[in-house]
What we know:
It is an enzyme of class 2 (transferase). By secondary structure, the protein is an alpha/beta fold.
Amino acid sequence: MKSLLPPSAAGSLPKPSWLAEPEKLWSPWKLQGDELIEAKQDALRLALDDQLQAGIEIVSDGEQTRQHFVTTFIEHLDGVDFEKRETVRIRNRYDASVPTVVGAVSRQRPVFVDDAKFLRQQTTKQIKWALPGPMTMIDTLYDSHYKSREKLAWEFAKILNQEARELEAAGVDIIQFDEPAFNVFFDDVNEWGVATLEKAIEGLKCETAVHICYGYGIKANTDWKKTLGSEWRQYEEAFPKLQKSSINLISLECHNSHVPMDLMELIRGKKVMVGAIDVASYAIETPEEVADTLRKALQFVDADKLYPCTNCGMAPLPRHVATAKLRALGAGADIIRRELAA
Ligand SMILES: [Zn+2]
C-alpha cells in the first residue's frame, strides 16, 4: 500500500570503503572483474537495507554500481572517446577534463537494466531509478561531432528513452532524470531542454521524475551558491514549462537553501519531492527540522503530492552522516504523517 508522504533519497548514497574510496567523486573501484560485480551487488543490498531501516518508502540502488551519475552512463555509449579529453566549464562553474564526442552516439546494450533487475529482486517497495538528463549529459562533454548542444541533447534523449523503456520493463516504478543543468541554462531549458526530457520519457507507463538541484555539497558548488544572493529564484525559469509537461514528479532543493518556497506554486498539480535534507553539511537534521520543512511545503503542495526527499545525492558525505540523515528524513516524514492522521 502506498503510504502518504513516502520518503526517498534524491540520488547517490556513499559507497562502503571496501568498494571505493569514500568522500570522493569519481572514486576508483578497489576491486576488478567478478569480484567487483559481486561487491557492487553487496553494496547495493546494504544501501537498500540502510534505506529500509530509515523508513525510506521509495528505495533506490544508492547508485552503488556507478562511479558517477553522468559519466558512467556515457561510458557505455558509442561515439564518445574517453581517451580524448578537453577541458570545459561544467555548468558555468568549474573546469573539468571531459571526454570528447567523436562520432554518432548510440547505445549498443543496456547500461543499468541488470542492476535494476537485481534491485527489483530484493524488495517489494516502490523503486526509483536515476538517469542523467539530456542537458546535463551534454554539459559534461566536449562535442567535436554534432557541434550543436541541441542536436546532441536530442540524440541522448533517444538513447535515454531506450534505456528507460527497459528499466520500466525490469520493474522500476519511477524513472528520474537528473537535470541540475536546468538551474543554469535557462534559455536552452525553455527552447529545447524540457522538450528533450519529454522525448526521454516518451511512451513510458511508469512514473517519471526530474531532479533539479544546486549540486552536490562539493566546494565548487558551495562557492557558486555564495554568489547567488539571498533569494534563489532559478526554479522560476524552468517550472512553468515543466508544469505543462508530462513529467509526474519534480524533485527540488529546499532545506537550508535560499529557494523561496512559494515557487512551488508554479508547479501546482505535480507531485513534488521536497528536499528536507541538506547534503552540503555534515550536521544531522533533527526529525523536527525535517518536519518543519515539510510542514511549510504543505502550504504549496497537497499532502497526497508531497514526497519528502534529500536536496541532492549524498555520495560525497561520510557514510555514517548520510545514514543518519536518511533516518532523520524517515522520522520527520513520520511526524507529519501522524499530524495529518490526527
Ligand atoms: Zn542533485
